[in-house]
Amino acid sequence: MKSKFSRKALREAGQGYFFMSPALLVLLLFILGPILYIVFLSFHKVQLLGTTSYDFVAFENFKRMLDDMRAQRALWNTLKYVVIVVPCQTLLALVLAATLNTGLKGQTFFRIVYFLPTLTSSAVLTLIFMWMYNKDGLINNVLDFIGLPTYNFLGDPTIALNAIMIMNIWSTAPFFMVIYLAALQDIPDSLYEAAELDGATVWQKFWKITVPNLRPVTSFVAIMGLIGTFQLFDQSYIFSAGSGGPDNSTLTVVLLIYQYAFKSLGDMGYAAALAFLLAIVILVATLLQRKFSKEESLY
Fold it and tell me: Could you identify which of 93, 152, 259, 264 might form a hypothetical disulfide with 173, taking C-beta atoms 3.0 to 4.6 angstroms apart as the criterion?
């Protein structure tokens, strides 16, 4: 009986893995495989032109980062971008969702309008903002018209990264707004009705009921924001024509990885080491965010 049960269990397990095999194959080929290959490359000096060769250099690629000023600048720019953009886009998404969930007249129209940037290609949005940020662009024309000083958004190292931040906060907040809107529908109306009977103000209901009950969603939004902002590439690439300028002010870790991997000969191993380091940073940041955030709701 035991042997029969074991054969049945093995047969069922085999059938399960058979049906799972396409997904497992995709996972192996396109996720686990590249990750392991990147780890392998990070410990080698790679020659891809001519005769392909892999020379084991141990931790030399990682030690090189300590003396690479551009890598340090890219990491600083990326961390600055993450620290500013993630809280701002999360707060803006929450405020927009709470506002559009109050029965505002024409709220369906505003929801559609706010969500439109999410449907637009990132490259297209970047080109539109570059036109607006141009010396003779829309923003400077408006500033000049009302008598305020104009700015060289694309050429001033002190504000170039800030210009990208503003664009991304505006374009990514609507996506998270929709997630918040869905979560707001799950908060029982009885909580707000009880608060009204107790004389709570709009702000008190928002701070004491809405925000605490959205903790799981806020945690999810923050994690997605962390992962996305650490991987900033396309906007920085288009803004600076791939250079990370002006004066490396828009250089990010992913853009630097691209430069070393595809624009420098013999630096594929170093680019892999940078990619591996970035993956570790994202993993640690995500784990810390989950550890220190309260994900449980109050109902």
Answer: 93
